Amino acid sequence: MRKHHYRSVEYGVKEKLTYVNVFGIINMIQAVLPEMRKVKYGKNINIGSISGKFTQSLNGR
Fold it and tell me: What CA–CA distance (Å, rounded) separates 57 from 55?
């Protein structure tokens, strides 16, 4: 897969990625929270990426 520079990515693609990364977590929490409340136990562990804040030397030009 070819890596693309962030500025060359269309706005719609960025919007979809943001929607998935933000609302995906929210939707998952809303799906499991009722059962966690019912059993009065549970842990929610969200695993994300810091790629949006820090770049790596191999991530483009």
Answer: 7
| Cα distance between residue 23 and residue 27, in whole Å | 6
Which residue stretches of 1-61 are H helix?
A: 11-39
CA distances from 16 to 1, 13, 51, 52, 58 (A): 19, 5, 16, 15, 24
Indicate the pTM of the whole model: 0.57
Q: Render pLDDT for 14-50 as a digit per residue (tens, 0 to 9).
A: 888 888 888 988 999 999 999 999 999 999 887 766 6
Contacts for 6-9: CB closer than 8 Å, 24+ residues apart: 6/60
The whole-number pLDDT of residue 57 equals: 58
